[in-house]
């Protein structure tokens, strides 16, 4: 029986989170070619992706653009894995650096699909991921991967979803009152979250916390090309 035939109507829901409408359209078509009658949702920003997952708790898979606005690189992956642990998250990116791909796995990605991937390989990767197998030619983290990445991934995994949201807003430069307004919580609650975050991350200041998160930012090669004269 073909792999796609195992996924019948109403059983597979996939969210495509990417800020490029044409790429979302192409990816949605590829998904439907692999999974008959799949329910495909789309989001053009990180917060809209979060809202879609909150609304549809039966989502099986998220195809998440590494460079989507609001995701802050691998931080978006960490946040979604924390808030929606039952949902598999696969990174999609124009950046196909093997080290970047392995880092994504360290931080919880179920797979990594470069945007240059051909349709046949893309279909094969999707089938493998939906069958809980390793997509090809993806390889897992190795002993040579940076120890600081593994340590930071473990520390971030110990934070609650709300603490991660507070941390992300700290990295954006928001003050406590602004964070409280954004999350609709009390300012004293923000301070309590920050104390817990600082302790678990082993930092003492907002600047140190922001620097840690900055290490999760990944350069987007497609935008560097677009900016060249």
Salient structural properties:
229 residues; alpha/beta; Rossmann fold; Arc Repressor Mutant, subunit A; 2 domains; five-stranded parallel beta sheet; 11 helices; 5 strands; disordered N terminus
Structure classification? alpha/beta
Report strand %: 5-15%
Q: What CATH first level of the largest domain would be assigned?
A: Alpha Beta
- Cα gyration radius (Å): 18 Å
Instruction: Give the spatial strand order of the biggest sheet.
Output: 2-1-3-4-5
The shape is globular
Please outline the major beta sheet: 5 strands, parallel
| Count of individual helical segments | 11
CATH architecture of the largest domain: 3-Layer(aba) Sandwich
**Percent of residues in helices:** 40-55%
Give the rounded overall mean pLDDT.
85
Low-confidence stretches: 1-10, 224-229
Number of domains: 2
Q: What's the total number of strands?
A: 5
**CATH-assigned homologous superfamily of the largest domain:** Response regulator
| Span between termini | 51 Å
């Amino acid at each position: 029986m073909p792999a796609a035939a195992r996924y019948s109507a109403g059983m597979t829901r996939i969210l495509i989170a990417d800020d490029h409408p044409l790429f979302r359209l192409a990816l949605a078509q590829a998904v439907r070619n692999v999974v008959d009658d799949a329910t495909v949702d789309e989001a053009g920003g990180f917060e809209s992706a979060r809202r879609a997952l909150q609304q549809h708790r039966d989502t099986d898979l998220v195809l998440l653009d590494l460079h989507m606005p609001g995701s802050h690189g691998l931080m978006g992956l960490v946040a979604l894995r924390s808030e929606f642990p039952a949902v598999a998250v696969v990174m999609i990116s124009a950046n196909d650096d093997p080290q970047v791909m392995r880092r994504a796995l360290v931080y919880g990605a179920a797979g990594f699909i470069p945007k240059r991937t051909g349709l046949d390989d893309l279909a094969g990767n999707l089938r493998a991921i939906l069958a809980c197998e390793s997509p090809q030619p993806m390889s897992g983290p190795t002993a040579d991967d940076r120890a600081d990445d593994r340590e930071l991934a473990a520390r971030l995994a110990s934070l609650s979803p709300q603490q991660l949201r507070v941390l992300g807003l700290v990295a954006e430069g928001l003050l406590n009152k602004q964070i409280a307004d954004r999350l609709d919580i009390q300012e004293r609650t923000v301070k309590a979250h920050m104390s817990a975050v600082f302790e678990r991350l082993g930092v003492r200041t907002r600047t140190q916390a922001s620097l840690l998160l900055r290490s999760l930012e990944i350069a987007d090669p497609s935008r560097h090309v677009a900016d060249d004269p």
